[in-house]
């Protein structure tokens, strides 16, 4: 029997915080997993260190399914972002080990290539319509075939998705939450004008995406979906909060704009009704969010029954470990849609050496055994954890709203 001999949490902040799990075995093979939960990192560090690592030591790392079930059923307190991220960290490290044992890139172990390359979308953010349009142009020049566009809006302080720097947008920006102000009316009037301009300037070929970031009620989302129909979005994301999955029925009844949701979901139970009632087109749940490869595979297979495709979350808080694993997953998964790709900073890329590459608007999986992402622990130690939280949003009268 093969054995897990050690498991360690590595916390580092090469530009932003990451929680990484390294599992070592008695055969010298090790695996790397990601457990980063943006703005709540220490909860996963503690969950892993106190409750998960002690039960891993001595187990056979090849029994991925049994370890997954042990951690899920065995917690008694099922689901939730902290538990499912801790499970994901273990699961991804174990798939990395198994693929290295098999001497295969992970996509081969999952069933082999379904495609040559993985279509991605990048983030174009600008302070106003013209700036955002210029940024879309810049992404086109870099080869992107799909671009998400977010813009500053007159009357809205700190609109979602608009960075302060160049290229790298990082919302978790302060040790206490930054306060932003939201105005639904201004947003609903502004957004169709943005996309009208983007189609006028950039033509019909480029895929355009947009993230509402949970800000609208169902009927407001329905109105936005209708008003955006002439500009043929690839998708409208997180149009309304989805705690109540039925909420999407109302949006769906009113618009043919494709709907994407799921970056904050933890399990198949969060999207079961959305998928089986065909209320969405893309499921955005990703590896680290929902218990790793083992569980995301179940979600994807379930979604395929209703022609729902994948669109994995890929913001910078998903570490290169998650991105690399996602690229293998996307290379295999039959019902692939698109992969979000928000570039990491050079510091992050140095701490996490990886073999995925960006070319012609697509990510390409490497051929190394495993998921192809490692961690340089000595370099990581030079970037100590620095507490950062996500912003909050209030309405103009001061009421709390969904950030
Ligand atoms: C996206 C997301 C992110 C989230 C971030 C929170 O579509 O990429 O909405 O930008 O806000 O992942 O940590
Ligand atoms: Mg989003």
Seen as an oligomer or otherwise, the chain set is single chain
Count of folded domains: 2
**The CATH H-level homologous superfamily of the largest domain:** Enolase-like C-terminal domain
How large a portion of the residues is in β-strands, by DSSP E?
A: 15-25%
Q: Provide the residue-averaged pLDDT.
A: 97
Helix content: 25-40%
| CATH class category name of the largest domain | Alpha Beta
Query: How much is the radius of gyration in Å?
Result: 20 Å
Query: What is the CATH architecture assignment of the largest domain?
Result: Alpha-Beta Barrel
Structural class: alpha/beta
User: Tally the helices: what do you get?
Assistant: 13
> What fold name goes in the CATH topology slot of the largest domain?
TIM Barrel
Number of DSSP strands?
A: 16
Name the features.
ten-stranded mixed sheet; 13 helices; binds D-gluconic acid; 36% helix; alpha/beta; 403 residues; Enolase-like, domain 1; TIM Barrel; binds magnesium ion; single chain
């Amino acid at each position: 029997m093969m054995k897990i001999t050690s498991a360690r949490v590595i916390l580092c902040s090469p530009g932003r915080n990451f929680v990484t799990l390294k599992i070592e075995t008695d055969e010298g093979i090790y695996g790397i997993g990601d457990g980063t939960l943006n703005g709540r990192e220490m909860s996963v560090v503690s969950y892993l260190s106190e409750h998960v690592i002690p039960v891993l030591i001595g187990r056979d790392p090849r029994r991925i399914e049994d370890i997954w079930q042990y951690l899920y059923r065995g917690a008694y307190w099922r689901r939730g972002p902290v538990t499912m991220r801790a499970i994901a960290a273990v699961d991804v490290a174990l798939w990395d080990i198994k693929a290295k044992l098999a001497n295969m890139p992970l996509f081969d172990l999952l069933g082999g290539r379904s495609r040559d390359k993985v279509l991605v979308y990048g983030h174009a953010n600008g302070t106003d319509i013209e700036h955002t349009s210029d940024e879309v142009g810049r992404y086109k020049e870099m080869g992107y075939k799909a671009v998400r566009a977010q813009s500053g809006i007159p009357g809205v302080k700190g609109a979602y998705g608009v960075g302060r720097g160049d290229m790298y947008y990082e919302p978790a920006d302060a040790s206490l939450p930054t306060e932003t102000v939201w105005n639904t009316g201004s947003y609903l009037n502004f957004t169709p004008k943005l996309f009208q301009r983007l189609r006028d300037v950039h033509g019909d070929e480029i895929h355009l995406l947009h993230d509402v970031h949970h800000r609208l009620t169902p009927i407001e989302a329905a109105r936005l979906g209708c008003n955006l129909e002439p500009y043929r979005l690839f998708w409208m994301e997180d149009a309304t909060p989805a705690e109540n999955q039925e909420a999407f029925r109302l949006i769906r009844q009113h618009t043919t704009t494709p709907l994407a949701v799921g970056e904050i979901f933890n399990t198949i139970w969060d999207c079961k009704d959305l998928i089986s009632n065909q209320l969405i087109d893309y499921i955005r749940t990703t590896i680290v969010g929902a218990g790793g490869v083992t569980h995301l595979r179940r979600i994807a297979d379930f979604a395929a029954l209703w022609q729902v495709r994948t669109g994995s979350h890929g913001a910078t808080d998903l570490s290169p470990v998650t991105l690399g694993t996602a690229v293998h997953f996307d290379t295999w998964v039959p019902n692939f849609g698109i992969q979000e790709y928000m570039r990491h900073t050079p510091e992050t890329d140095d701490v996490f050496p990886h073999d995925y590459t960006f070319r012609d608007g697509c990510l390409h999986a490497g051929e190394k055994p495993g998921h192809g992402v490692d961690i340089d622990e000595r370099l990581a130690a030079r970037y100590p954890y620095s507490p950062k939280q996500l912003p909050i949003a209030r309405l103009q009268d001061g009421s709390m709203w969904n950030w």
